[in-house]
Specification:
The protein has 206 residues and is of the alpha+beta class. It has helices at 71-80, 82-87, 90-101, 162-173, 185-193, 199-205; strands spanning 24-25, 34-37, 43-46, 122-124, 132-135, 141-145, 148-151, 154-158. The protein has one domain (8-107, 159-205). Helix 1 crosses helix 5 (185-193). The mean pLDDT is 90. Bound molecules: zinc ion (ZN) (2 copies). The site of one zinc ion has 7 residues, from loops.
């Protein structure tokens, strides 16, 4: 498990996609990711690249049940422990961080400024229907999907709004055979304890 590194392109200067101000290293409870924040409190994250073995899922891994620990302790354990973290799906890592930080975010993140140069981003036509193409006047081009903006190999994740977090939690708690192998029982318990967990998700999911 390797911690996230600040990409070279963003080392000299780095701009907030939402307001264009400088982004500088901020604090977050996830020891493996990089948090960047601006003076207005917009936060963006660079997640660690999981080792290739992460796809091997946790079924076979001999994991502790963590049955008698608090949801906070479980979330911390999964986020920090190198072995557990190497098995942890990236979106689940985000959800555990959000649970521990218990911040409330009402607005959807905006992507108006180029993270590399701070220039205004404008939409341009590109062939991938799953993303929006954004480009600045210096031709840094970005793909925007949901609350993540990327320009290979750079990827910045914004702080998702509470509404999006609720949707993501509901998605994980559904009986979904693709997601199930990644969702350890202890993580399911943390998600159901989140104040952002939709009520009906806990009833149908168990
Ligand atoms: Zn900002
Ligand atoms: Zn640019």
């Amino acid at each position: 498990m390797n911690a996230a590194k600040l990409p070279e392109e963003l080392c000299a200067e780095c701009h907030c996609p939402s307001c264009g101000d400088d982004l500088s290293p901020g604090k977050c409870v996830d020891p493996w990711s990089i948090c960047l924040s601006c003076a207005r409190g917009h936060r963006f994250f660079i997640m660690p690249q999981p080792p290739l073995a992460a796809d091997s899922v946790m079924d076979g891994a001999n994991l502790p049940s963590m049955g008698d620990h608090s949801p906070e302790a479980i979330a911390n354990y999964w986020l920090s422990d190198p072995l557990l973290r190497s098995l942890l799906n990236q979106q689940l890592a985000e959800l555990l961080r959000i649970f521990l930080e218990s911040r409330r975010v009402t607005d959807e993140p905006e992507f108006s400024f180029c993270p590399i140069c701070g220039g205004t981003l404008v939409e341009y036509d590109q062939p991938d229907i799953w993303v929006r193409g954004l480009r600045c006047h210096r031709s840094h081009s970005w793909a925007l999907r949901g609350y993540r903006i990327y320009s290979w190999p750079l990827e910045l994740l914004a702080e998702p709004s509470d509404a999006v977090v609720s949707q993501l939690i509901a998605g994980w708690l559904k009986d979904n055979s693709h997601l199930k192998p990644y969702l350890h029982e202890s993580i399911r318990r943390v998600l159901t304890c989140s104040p952002l967990c939709p009520k009906d998700a806990t009833e149908s999911g168990a």
